[in-house]
Amino acid sequence: MEAVQKGINPLRLIAAVILGVIVGTIVFLVVAIVIGIINNSMHMAIPINLLIAENITSALLLVLFIIMGITGFVRLVLRTPPSESSDDSDE
Q1: Alpha carbons 54 and 1: distance in angstroms, whole number
Q2: Rounded (10°) angle between helices 10-42 and 56-79
Q3: Cβ atoms within 10 Å of 72's Cβ, excluding its own
Q4: What span, in angstroms and rounded, lies between the C-alpha atoms of 49 and 51?
Q5: Is 0.70 topped by the overall pTM?
């Protein structure tokens, strides 16, 4: 087993970016719904809701979660060596 990777597969990076966008969006939706429930039940004025076009705070929070998701998955791809298929083994 090699300690250093020869190169990073671009397909793995693309998959990490796509997965980061999807997970970041889902996390934003969950956080926005939870904040909305708290906001409605306690009659607070927290400016986070699902109306991204009308709310700059929501848009910034969405971008923040997407960036965090992308960086998390890209970091995971960079730290994890690619798996070896049975065709690559020297038997």
Answers
A1: 53
A2: 140
A3: 15
A4: 6
A5: yes
What's the Cα-to-Cα distance from 21 to each of 35, 68, 72, 87, 89, rounded to whole Å?
21, 9, 11, 32, 34
Neighbours of 20 (CB within 10 A): 23
Q: How many whole angstroms separate alpha carbon 23 and alpha carbon 17? A: 10
Per-residue pLDDT tens over the stretch 36-62: 888 888 877 777 666 766 778 888 888
Q: What is the 3-state secondary structure (H, E, C) of the chain?
A: CCCCCCCCCHHHHHHHHHHHHHHHHHHHHHHHHHHHHHHHHHCCCCCCCCCHHHCHHHHHHHHHHHHHHHHHHHHHHHHCCCCCCCCCCCC
pLDDT at 1: 42
Kindly list the domain boundaries of the chain, sorted by start residue: 10-79
**Could you say which DSSP state residue 5 is in?**
-
Q: Read off the amino acid at residue 3.
A: A
